[in-house]
Amino acid sequence: MKEMRRDQITGDLIIYSSYRNKRPHDTIKSNKNKPSEGPQYSDTCPFCRGNEHLNDMPTYLIEKEGQWLAKSVKNKFPIVDMETDHIYGEHEVIVETHRHEGSYYNMSIDEFKHIFDIFINRYKDLSARPGIEYVNIFKNHLRDAGASLMHPHSQIVSFNLIPAEIVKEIKIARSHMDHHNSNLYDYIIESELAHQKRVVYDGKSFLVFIPHATRYNGEIRIICKDDKKIDQWGLDEIEEISYIYKRLFEKWEDYNVEQIAFNVVIHTYPLNGDYDDLFRTHFHIIPRKFNFGGFELSTDLFVCGTDPEDLAEFLRFD
User: Fold this and answer.
1) pTM here?
2) CB of 239 within 8 A of CB of 117?
């Protein structure tokens, strides 16, 4: 089966090919994506508890009985800094747990709560700086997803412009509003709940689903059901999204039969302007099992072979 599909959020054109994932691949042994395992501490890791001298002072800290559990620190190799006028901002690393062998595949709900607590605190602080237009939150897990260190961490970057990907999503959402007089994200939520077969989890504050079309083979998305910005989330939202992460990554590991590389990107609201009627905070969870080839790079068309309904059925939880 082959058909053209269009991503409702990004506008990407997708060629869905039901047998594309069945292509043969050479088997190459590699350790570059070997997940963290073994002891909780590594004496060479700058993010491990006990190696605090390798980092600046924390910008935020979660402690218990005098020991830190998770923290944020300045990135020693920032993408942006405050040294220039044309592109500036701040770049921090969220050390998600003191456990060197930790990962989203084995974290507890409490550990996920710590992560979102830090996200919210750092988002509030960084977004308050003069001239900042956007705060970007993302995670790279394992080498194929861009991670340089194996200790579990994510990153938050503020800068003085709105990223092109967000501009594109807002443009598509505005076009939907102009043509249908409704919020695109509300429409997607209603459509997915009516269809049901691509829904992974339907909660009070969040919908988890597999998009009908996406450039990233097997991508998972999470949409916030109301127009709350991430800095407006309270205990209820933090508890629910932490529960989602715990259950989702457990199921995802079973589906992939291993701990695969992935990226998580959280698309937040631009800081200036009223986007409440157009936008919703949402997550893209992107598996990095497949790379783009010459066809995708030469045409800007993307080929996907994962059946979203099959994937959703496997991952579904209450």
Assistant:
1) 0.94
2) no
